[in-house]
Write a structure and sequence with these properties.
The chain is mainly beta. It has a domain of 62 residues: SH3 Domains (SH3 type barrels, Roll), CATH 2.30.30. It is built from 1 helix and 5 strands. A 5-stranded antiparallel beta sheet has the order 4-3-2-1-5, with no helix packed on it. The longest helix has 9 residues. Keywords: Glycosyltransferase, SH3 domain, Transferase.
């Protein structure tokens, strides 16, 4: 609704839109992790290297196309392009209900 109201004043308010989405976290849960699906060669000193299959411990999303995390393979912490990693699902077997 807020976005629609902005359009009345601005015309195209798309440039003024900011996502409020954040990573879901429940106290005491396992760390949030992603898996790299593309290699990444750092282009700046604050970026980290990624190789396909690397597991990344997520520290946060910067909402500018980059996220911050720690590469579990190298131990390096820094920024990486968010689109180069996907959710690492933990699949757990549960006994059938009887």
């Amino acid at each position: 609704m807020g976005y629609e109201l902005m359009q009345v004043q601005e015309g195209d308010a798309g440039e003024r839109f900011h996502s409020l989405d954040d990573l879901y976290y429940y106290g005491g849960q396992h760390a949030h992790e992603l898996t790299a699906v593309e290699n990444h060669v750092p282009e700046a000193s604050e970026e980290i290297e990624l190789k396909v299959g690397d597991v990344i411990g997520v520290a946060g999303n910067h909402w500018d196309g980059y996220s911050k995390g720690v590469n579990r393979r190298t131990g390096a912490m820094g920024l990486y392009p968010s689109y180069k990693a996907v959710e690492k699902w933990r699949i757990v077997d549960f006994p059938p209900l009887s």
